[in-house]
Amino acid sequence: MHNIREFMADDHRRCDDVFADAEQAVADGDWARADARFAQFRQAVLQHFAAEESLLFPAFEEKTGMSMGPTQVMRGEHVQMRELLEEGAAALAARDAEGYSGSSETLLIMMQQHNMKEENVLYPMCDQHLVDYVETLVPRLQAQIQNQPGADA
Amino acid sequence: MQALLSFDRAPPFGAPLRFFLTAPAFAVLAGLLLLWSGPDLFASRWTPEALALTHLLTAGFMLQTMLGALFQLLPVVAGANMVRPLFVARLVHVALTVGTLALVAGFLTYEPLAFRFAVLFLGAGATLFIAAAGHALHGIPATSPTIRGLRLALIGLAVTVAFGLLLAASLGWSLALPLAQLTDIHLGWGFVAWGCALLAAVGYVVVPMFQLTPSYPGWFGKHFARFVLGVAAVWTVADLAGWTLPSAVLSAAVVLCAAAFAVVTLSIQWRSKRAKLDPTQVYWRVAMFSALAACALWLAASAIPALAGWQGWPLLFAALLLLGGFMSVIVGMLYKIVPFLVWLHLQNLGRGRVLAPNMKKVLAETHMRKQMYAHFAAVVLFLGAVVWPQGLAYPAGAALVLANGWLVRNLLAALGVYRRHLVQIAAVLDVPLAGAL
Q1: A105 contacts in B (CB within 8 Å)?
Q2: Which domains does chain A have, with CATH numbers?
Q3: Which residues of chain B does A103 touch, with a Cβ-Cβ cutoff of 8 Å?
Q4: pLDDT at position B430, please?
Q5: Does residue B36 belong to the interface with chain A, where contact is any CB pair within 8 Å?
Q6: Disulfide: which of B26, B107, B191, B354 matches B350 by Cβ 3.0-4.6 Å?
Q7: Which of residues 374-403 of B touch A (CB under 8 A)?
Q8: What value does the mean pLDDT of chain B take?
């Protein structure tokens, strides 16, 4: 049985992998593959956000009473990353490799520093506070991330 | 909790930026010094010009960027919040800048007063920084190799500065100290126990982050900084006690630590998932190869008497390590940190209503790449100048001025984008600009 940190960190790595695939396709000038990979990446990221915002964060907030704390900071960063995703999508639609590379570079760093904070601080706090719920919460997160395409917030 | 929220308490842009903009100006001065002194600088590692140039690059370029980066990184990666970071940054920056200029003036004139000023200002600046950073890190649990590494690197900095101050004081007040021996200890701590330990601590975070590589191996992150500091400490004791053989073996171990960091870094960078090498990645890889070449040269010089007898080898070693190694990796990281901070601050100030320009609009990759080639040309010419000073000293000086002038220009261009967008944000949101920078 996974704990929250392991499960969600694995999903971060999955997003990284698809991000790299999309970047590779754009670098190769293979726009059809880039469209497919980027769509996959966007969906993976948005589902990850949706799982956090609809399940994990509310559970954490309810248990700890901290609704203006770390989860609020993370929600704010999700907003910024959604904007960068849209900027990347627009650049891709315009077949603008330079523009895509600028927004994907920015998104990558934003995403990595965000992941670092979640993996090092927030998820361990979730594992600690939600220890009694992990067994039901992780499968629900898994369902949200894997089985509900287009479940963006 | 603290680490998480602290992101919003990251220091104002002005705290790290002042260091990042001053650093390349010192490297330009290093190039000008070379143009002024010409081939004479390369007569030995002890010429006044060689000592001045080394400190323009170490205290001027490297230390400025390292401390500037720490003002940013301590709260963000370690959750270590400094008290009044902008105020501390201003004081440390002024003290460091004045102190470095005094030190360089001291080497060029051998005027005791200049060394006394250097001791005063560099001592005050470094002490203030170490105290502020140490206080911020106090009580933060060492939950990651980065936090452990940062703490130990600060100890490395303290020892490096202590020996440096001792050396400068002995020139300022004519103390009878074994200068050559203390210089080697100052170098060993500066390059490895401070420089390499800090680079490793930061690298654990930024190499996987910027380059999508696997993490550094767990054993490496856990033991590297501790091992480096331990070996450096035992070596220092052995050297000061005059135990020749143990000291020689231990100094080789210090050099091998630096080489191990370069090898491990290259091995994970080889597995990067990024589609193409951007300037930061090229800078990192060249830096690691250059550092490895420096280590190989050091080991060869300690094994081959004919090489050890050549006055040029320490200069070649320093050029490989400082110009090819540390400077390369630092510029490579500045090219990620500065555009990202510009984007991040603009994004936060724009409150979702004014979109920030992405990193490549802040600083175009072509500009970074061209500056990078100028830097590599400077490194190659400088290495050549050690071997053939008559022919290459002036071209090397000119290349150093060009590469670092270009770096200043690139950073100022990024700052220009920041300022223009601030005006736009102020207009759209109808808020005053004051305090944003």
Answers
A1: 278, 358-360
A2: 4-145 (1.20.120)
A3: 358
A4: 82
A5: no
A6: B354
A7: none
A8: 94
Check residue B328 and give its pLDDT.
Answer: 98
Which secondary-structure segment (H or E) carries A103? helix A97-117
The values of phi and psi at residue B433, to 5°, are -80, -20
- Tell me whether residues B343 and A27 touch, CB distance under 8 A: no
CA separation for the pair B190, B157 (Å, rounded)? 7
pLDDT on residue B6: 43
Asked whether B149 and B197 are in contact (CB, 8 A), the reply is yes
Residue of A nearest to B361 (CA): A102
**Integer Cα distance of B316 and B50 in angstroms:** 12
pLDDT in tens, B14-54: 999 999 999 999 999 999 999 999 999 999 999 999 999 99
Give the torsion sign (CA, B356, B358, B360, B361).
negative
Instruction: Provide the 3-class DSSP secondary structure of residue B266.
Output: helix
Tokens for A92? 């891709």
What's the pLDDT tens digit per position in A41-57?
A: 999 999 999 999 999 99
| Complex ipTM value | 0.86
Identify the pLDDT of residue B435.
54
CA A114 vs. chain centroid, Å, equals: 9
**Which positions in chain A have a beta carbon within 8 angstroms of at least one beta carbon in chain B?**
16-17, 19-20, 23-24, 26-28, 69-70, 73-74, 79-80, 83-84, 87, 98-99, 101-103, 105-106, 108-110, 112-113, 116-117, 120-122, 125
More confident position, B216 or A146: B216
pLDDT in tens, B80-128: 889 999 999 999 999 999 999 999 999 999 999 999 999 999 999 999 9
Q: At which residue do the structure tokens 């300037």 appear?
A: B279
- Closest Cα in chain B to A81: B347
Query: Could you count the other beta carbons within 10 Å of the beta carbon of residue A110?
Result: 20
Length of chain B: 437
Asked whether B8 and B41 are in contact (CB, 8 A), the reply is: no
Contacts of residue A133, defined as CB under 8 A and 6 or more positions apart, other chains included, come to A59, A63
Report the residue of B1, B4, B344 to disrupt the A interface, i.e. the one with the largest count of A CBs within 10 Å: B4
How is chain A split among helix, strand and coil, in percent rounded to 5?
Answer: 85, 0, 15
Tell me which chain A residues have a C-beta less than 8 angstroms from the C-beta of B277: none
How long is chain A?
153
Task: Provide the pLDDT for residue B8.
Answer: 53
Which residues in chain B touch residue A28, judged by CB atoms under 8 angstroms apart? Answer: 275
Q: At CB < 8 A and 24+ separation, what contacts does B235-240 make?
A: B235/B188, B236/B159, B236/B185, B236/B188, B236/B189, B239/B181, B239/B184, B239/B185, B240/B181, B240/B185
Chain A contacts of B77, Cβ < 8 Å? 116
**Exposed, middle or buried: residue A124 (CB in 10 Å: 0-12, 13-18, 19+)?**
middle
The Cα B391–Cα B23 span in angstroms is 28
Decide if pLDDT at B275 tops 90: no
d(CA B329, CA B283): 6
Please provide the average confidence, as pLDDT, over all residues in chain A: 90
**pLDDT the model gives residue A108:** 93
Residue that has been written with the tokens 């998932």 in this structure: B273
Nearest to B198 by CA among B163, B231, B149, B233: B149
